[in-house]
Amino acid sequence: MVTLGLLVAVAAFNAVVDPFGMNMMVRAEGLNGKKPAIYTRVRLFKAYEVSRVRPQTLILGTSRSHIGFSCSHEAWAQLEGPCYNLAFDGATSREMFAYLRHAYALRPLKHVLLGLEPYHLAPSVSTVRSDFDPLVLRDPKGNAVPRWLSGDLRLLISLDTLKASIQTLEAQDSSEPTWFGPDGQRLGEVFFRQIDGKFGQLGPRGYFDMTDQREVGYQTEWMVAAKRKHAVLRAEPAPDPNETSLGYVRRIVAFCRTHRIDLRIVVTPAHAHQLEIMAASIDWSEVERKKRDLLRLVDEENARHPELPPTPIVDFSGYSSITEEAPPPPGSRTELQYYWDSSHFKQIVGDYVLDRVYGVSSPARQVPSDFGVRLTAGAIESYLLEQRARQAAYRRRFPDDIVSLRGLVARALGNDQEERASGLKLDAERSALHRETRAGESNARRD
């Protein structure tokens, strides 16, 4: 009885303080008005937040979509029901499929915007992050009672929640601003300028360079791990196609079309530096193959429901006047116009994306004509060729940036032979790129 009474007391205390925003029964400044734990448990917080909002328009994606897309955009005013940004950092396609089903179980959806990145289109098995908790998510065909017992009640009596409740009480005097919008968006202006100390400490250019270095790590970590183990990369049995990252994208498309949900797919716009890091880490043809695979997948699912409008794919990830924005000089405190760093675009870019995808025309914004291309079977090859030409032109314009990024990748891979030859190799590449630049400028003058 003592144990039971203690558990009841802990559950009641956690329910009132509510550090993860599970129920919002009590909302009082000085008690739980500020909930710092939601920023480190975003997946958990959004699982319950979407239960309260019960949206009919949903944004799915990673931190890029989390930061860049706002439900205040004019496009959503034309659509039915509340809008909610259910994107979160590092979202995998498997996680996004689970949250899509969760939101649909709460209220049938009408519209979904799906923001994808190249890693979502991989043929490898899709994983989940450590803070993904499927026990708090609903299933359209499931029973809510087991979910309440295994999810809600488990959290209310857990030591982790108790610690978070205590930290919540201690944080009420904090002056830290809120950086989640009521629609689930992470507010970039608040997060980068007031919360993330490195943005102010390093300055916009330093932070941009730091993000480049992180991306190099993400792109090369599996190759570095293989080298450390002296492993020989060999062919392994192909995974179940339904369990791959691309397979879960197919599940999302199939679910939306089966349930008559208007799905729009966008490949999100990273800065060209990230494209060059990918090109230096893997063969560029791999990036092209992923886009072909995505188009083929969506065309197949479109064919299963010919009575519905086809699900569109709009690629914003290519080289364009937006993604090719020149970073400020080293040491500069000037912010980029379109990006917070080389991965995360600002809301103005997100507004451009939504304008293009939903056919919105705003006198306050003029979407650049080269930003956003709809992928179709008839035009995909010419588009990929055009992108290769733009890639070459970008390298001629920014030879020092290209050489620097290639150097980061070479050092991350740690190849002894490359390390010994890196100085000569990079100098040769820099000279060649400079020659290409001068030749291009000379040809332009003759033309």
CATH topology of the largest domain: Rossmann fold
Shape: globular
Structural class: mainly alpha
Total tally of structural domains = 2
Query: Using DSSP, what is the number of strands?
Result: 6
Tell me the Rg in angstroms.
24 Å
Query: What top-tier CATH class of the largest domain fits best?
Result: Alpha Beta
* Major sheet description: 6 strands, mixed
Order of helices and strands: HHEHHEHEHHHHHEHHEHEHHH
Q: How are the strands of the biggest sheet laid out side by side?
A: 2-1-3-4-5-6
Number of continuous helical runs = 16
Low-confidence stretches: 416-424, 440-447
CATH-defined architecture of the largest domain: 3-Layer(aba) Sandwich
Helix content: 40-55%
- The amount of beta strand, in percent, is 5-15%
Distance between the termini: 89 Å
Instruction: Quote the average pLDDT.
Output: 89
Description of the molecule:
This protein is mostly helical and 447 residues long. The protein folds into two domains: 50-130 and 174-377, Rossmann fold; 395-447. It is built from 16 helices and six strands. The protein has helices at 2-17, 42-53, 63-68, 74-77, 93-106, 144-156, 159-170, 188-195, 197-228, 245-258, 272-281, 284-304, 347-358, 380-397, 399-413, 416-446; strands spanning 57-60, 83-85, 111-116, 262-267, 313-315, 373-374. It has a six-stranded mixed β-sheet with strand order 2-1-3-4-5-6. Helix 10 runs parallel beside helix 12 and helix 14 crosses helix 16 (416-446). The longest helix has 32 residues, at 197-228. It is globular. Residues 416-424 and 440-447 have low confidence and may be disordered.
